[in-house]
Design goal:
It comes from Streptomyces coeruleoprunus. By secondary structure, the chain is of the alpha/beta class. The protein is built from 17 helices and eleven strands. Helix 2 runs antiparallel to helix 3. The C terminus is likely disordered.
Length: 434
């Protein structure tokens, strides 16, 4: 089969209706497309079968995870160029029904099938989440979803996250390192919560214990950290013991719905609420409200998506759902704040820091790429490719304002109305807790 790249490029442009934004290198060594653009390498015809079988991002993701496609050149530029086709053009151009109705496109689709080779496509890569059943966001299903993402090896996460072991958006300043930015983020949260000696903090989704350790070490609080990941909990407990903080910090493998030992003076929830889901978000807000003492503060640090013109059109990202965060959901920040207020909270401050997450993700990708062989050894080639793609694509999404991240500070304001907030807001943003 000669010059597969030219045929593939022509078919892609016919089906998508726009010029191909990247160069293509096919399995036969041929190349076609813009000479100065990043190159999409199609190593095997199997990749086409996957993309025809599951048009859009899921087919592409399966081919990527399997190593059947790759990018030569700048990955971020390639994703940025492809974003308009794969993620931002809507679903009509990728809908098989749309192809069947248009005779011209139907002919192109038949030619693409011939080029793809023998049917059917191969099975999805082993890293894909298998078929799920039952209601969303039960305790059992949430525990399995969390385990899929977080229980892939603490050594792997050390390579990606660096010494801070913080898996959420950092808070950057000019010239700072990732460790500086993560420390500053943790300290900013402590100051927004107005933590002081003797306070009791609940850290929901405590990860590897970094927030709990920072709050206990620098602010003299006692902390209960909860996670659904057994591997995270074991790692956090060892860190805490090594730092001599076991008298101040307790780490539990526990669902937030099962915490009953309030009241707490403050609650931090950093990068956890994305796993709660729309059907449970009011329950989440109610539970945290009940666990706080009057006047207590909640810092909810959460990724948000842009609202749809018609919210019924919203679809969960197929690649993220199948390979990265099963059952994860993003909501617009307005819906999140409204739900917190419905639960009784007074929302006092919202700080949008989406550009900070793009910087964080680019640093994580750089860490992964710098330790690629070891990352593959610790997990699998497919898993390492998943993390590289999802983090790079997420960085582009933050940069393009497709998604954002917000720190929402809310107070369980008592009936007297005395919130305990400073008269001038955001005095906490000055300085850094070193």
């Amino acid at each position: 089969m000669s010059d597969a790249a030219s045929r593939l490029a022509a078919l892609a442009e016919e089906l998508m209706g726009v010029p191909l934004p990247v160069r293509i290198r096919a399995w036969d060594g041929s190349e076609a497309g813009p000479p100065d653009a990043p190159t999409l390498i199609v190593r095997h015809r199997r990749a086409l079968r996957r993309m025809v079988w599951k048009p859009g991002e899921l087919g592409l993701a399966r081919a990527w995870v399997a190593g059947e496609i790759d990018v030569r050149g700048d990955l971020y530029e390639a994703l940025d160029r492809l974003a308009g086709l794969v993620w931002e053009r809507g679903h009509d151009a990728k809908d098989p029904v749309h192809l069947v109705r248009d005779p011209r496109l139907r002919a192109a689709a038949r030619e693409l099938l011939r080029l793809a080779g023998p049917w059917p496509p191969p099975a999805p890569p082993a890293e894909e989440v298998r078929r799920r059943s039952g209601p969303l966001h039960t305790k059992v299903r949430d525990r399995r979803a969390i385990s899929h993402h977080y229980d892939v090896g603490n050594d792997f996460y050390e390579l990606v996250l660096g010494p801070s072991m913080v898996y959420s958006c950092a808070y950057w300043s000019e010239g700072g390192t990732l460790e500086d930015a993560q420390r500053d983020k943790l300290d900013l949260i402590c100051r927004k919560l107005a933590l002081k000696e003797g306070d009791r903090l609940l850290d929901v989704g405590c990860g590897w214990g970094s927030m709990a350790m920072h709050a206990a070490r620098h602010y003299g609080v006692t902390v209960v950290g909860i996670t659904l990941s057994a591997e995270q909990a074991a790692y956090a407990r060892k860190r805490i013991a090594d730092e001599g903080l076991t008298d101040r910090i307790e780490i539990r493998v526990q669902d937030y719905r099962d915490v009953r030992d309030g009241p707490y003076d403050a609650i931090s929830s950093i990068g956890m609420a994305e796993h709660v889901g729309a059907v449970r978000y009011r329950e989440y807000a109610d539970d945290l409200y009940a666990l706080l003492k009057p006047g207590g503060r909640l810092l909810n640090h959460q990724i948000a998506r842009r609202p749809e013109r018609n919210e019924e059109d919203y679809r969960v990202d197929e690649f993220i759902d199948a390979y990265v965060f099963p059952d994860g959901e993003l909501a617009p920040v307005g819906r999140t704040t409204a739900t917190l207020e419905e639960a009784g909270f007074e929302v006092r401050d919202i700080e949008a820091i989406r550009e900070h997450y793009a910087l964080t993700l680019r640093q994580w990708v750089a860490n992964l790429e710098a330790h690629w062989d070891e990352a593959v050894r610790l997990t699998s080639p497919g898993r390492a490719r998943i993390w590289r793609l999802y983090m790079a694509a997420s960085a582009i999404s933050f940069e393009r304002n497709r998604i954002g991240v917000n720190q929402i500070l809310a107070v369980k304001t008592p009936e007297s109305g005395a919130s305990g907030m400073p008269l001038r807001s955001r005095i906490w943003s000055a300085g850094s807790g070193r």
